[in-house]
């Protein structure tokens, strides 16, 4: 097994390293960055401890940037599709995606009350990078959020424009970190520390090999529903508990970004995005009322979608799309579990505490060695 499948660049254990028998074959780094041209960067803000003092801290938040193209092509649109499993959340740019089936510029993911600034800062970044391009034009970038107020001073507005630029500038391909990093810093899942997670799958079609990569910001789920590889783990009495010194409002959400180099049309990408629902369901998620379960899928296959000429694109027929559906389901499930398995316990505002998912207990329940 490839080392990159087993651990993050800093040596944190991933699901495959723990021995979880995931279905499907991953790409070289088992990450969304296995899709050529896609890169991921983070800005992480962790400051202070103790009682909440609004505007001061404690701070447990950040920004994730997913850059879908190399920077010299960043303003060129890509085909995309969007799906909302439950809409108690925000992902900007969706009206334009629904209307035209495309988007451009980096995708940002952060906490609920910082979503606007990441959107606006991305536009400012693009205008400064490509001044002439946007001199008489507009930009509608994708910015998404999940709620981190249990651990973070979310009303302190600690994410600034400079953090967005930091995340975009830090974007890289290859192996990437997961867990409490970037926008995922203050998130929790099924009562365990979670946040940023990723995975990928290879799909063979018509003599070619394509990649499907998934990135999630996981912040959802009720403890008793946690399921790992078909086994309910959340009801185990040996599991460590959260400490809630303030009310846990259980505002749960998940953002899933799906990238592929397979040629698809916008309506097909919407169908791919919808299949993230099944990966979430396999872990025990069920899209509760308070959950923002928002998914975006895009393809890097079409290189020129701009105006001025009749464009020709290739696409996989709808009748042959099932293996790609399966790849989305598999990679989404693994990305969610990776976001938890790589993580460590965290204490945040007012001493609120979220434990890490115990590796040995997971192995015990699943009958894994070691």
Give an overview in words.
By secondary structure, the protein is an alpha+beta fold. The protein has 9 helices and 16 strands. The strands form 5 sheets. Strands 4-3-14-13-10-9 form a 6-stranded mixed sheet, sandwiched between helices. A 4-stranded mixed sheet has the order 1-2-5-6. Helix 4 crosses helix 5 (161-169). It starts with a helix and ends with a helix. The mean pLDDT is 96.
What is the overall number of helices? 9
Order of helices and strands: HHEEEHEEHEHEEEEEEEHHEHEEH
What amount of the residues lies in strands?
15-25%
Helix share bin: 10-25%
Morphology: globular
Say how many strands there are: 16
TL;DR?
The chain is α+β, with helices and mostly antiparallel strands and 370 residues long. The chain is built from 9 helices and 16 strands. Helix 4 (115-129) packs across helix 5 (161-169) and helix 7 packs across helix 8 (322-341).
Reconstruct the topology from this structure.
Blueprint (H helix, E strand, L loop, with lengths): L2 H4 L8 H4 L20 E9 L11 E9 L10 E10 L6 H7 L1 E2 L3 E5 L3 H15 L13 E4 L14 H9 L18 E2 L2 E2 L2 E10 L2 E12 L7 E2 L2 E2 L20 E8 L5 H9 L1 H8 L8 E8 L22 H20 L4 E2 L5 E2 L4 H8 L4
Parallel strand pairs: 5-6, 13-14
Antiparallel strand pairs: 1-2, 2-5, 3-4, 3-14, 7-8, 9-10, 10-13, 11-12, 15-16
Helix pairs in contact: 4-5, 7-8
List keywords for this structure.
single chain, 370 residues, alpha+beta, six-stranded mixed β-sheet, four-stranded mixed β-sheet
């Amino acid at each position: 097994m490839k080392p990159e499948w087993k651990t993050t660049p800093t040596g944190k254990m991933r699901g495959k390293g723990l021995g979880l028998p995931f279905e499907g074959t991953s790409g070289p780094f088992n990450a969304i960055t296995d899709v050529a041209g896609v890169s991921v960067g983070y800005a992480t803000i962790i400051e202070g401890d103790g009682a909440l003092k609004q505007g001061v801290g404690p701070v447990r938040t950040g920004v994730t940037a997913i850059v879908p193209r190399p920077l010299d092509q960043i303003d060129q649109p890509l085909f995309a599709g969007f799906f909302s499993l439950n809409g108690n959340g925000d992902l900007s740019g969706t009206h334009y995606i629904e209307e035209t089936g495309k988007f451009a510029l980096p995708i940002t993911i952060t906490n609920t009350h910082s979503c606007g600034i990441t959107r606006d800062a991305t536009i400012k970044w693009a205008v400064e990078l490509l001044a002439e391009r946007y001199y008489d034009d507009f930009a509608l970038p994708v910015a998404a959020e999940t709620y981190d107020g249990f651990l973070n001073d979310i009303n302190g507005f600690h994410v600034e424009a400079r953090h967005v630029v930091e995340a975009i500038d830090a974007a890289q391909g290859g192996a990437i970190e997961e867990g409490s990093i970037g926008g995922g810093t203050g998130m929790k899942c099924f009562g365990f520390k979670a946040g940023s997670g990723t995975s990928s799958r290879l799909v063979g079609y018509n003599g070619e090999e394509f990649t499907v990569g998934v990135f999630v910001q996981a912040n959802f789920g009720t403890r008793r529903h946690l399921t790992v590889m078909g086994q309910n783990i959340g009801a185990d009495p040996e599991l460590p508990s959260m400490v809630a010194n303030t009310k846990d409002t259980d505002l749960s959400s998940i953002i899933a970004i799906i990238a592929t180099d397979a040629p698809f049309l916008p309506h097909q990408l919407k169908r791919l995005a919808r299949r993230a629902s099944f990966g979430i369901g396999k872990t025990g998620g069920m899209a509760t009322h308070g959950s923002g379960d928002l998914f975006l899928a895009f393809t890097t296959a079409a290189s020129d979608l701009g105006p001025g000429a009749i464009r020709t694109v290739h696409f996989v027929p709808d009748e042959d799309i099932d293996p790609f559906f399966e790849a989305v389901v598999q990679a989404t499930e693994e990305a969610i579990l990776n976001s938890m398995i790589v993580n460590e316990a965290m204490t945040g505002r007012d001493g609120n505490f979220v434990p890490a998912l115990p590796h040995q207990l997971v192995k015990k329940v699943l009958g894994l060695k070691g």
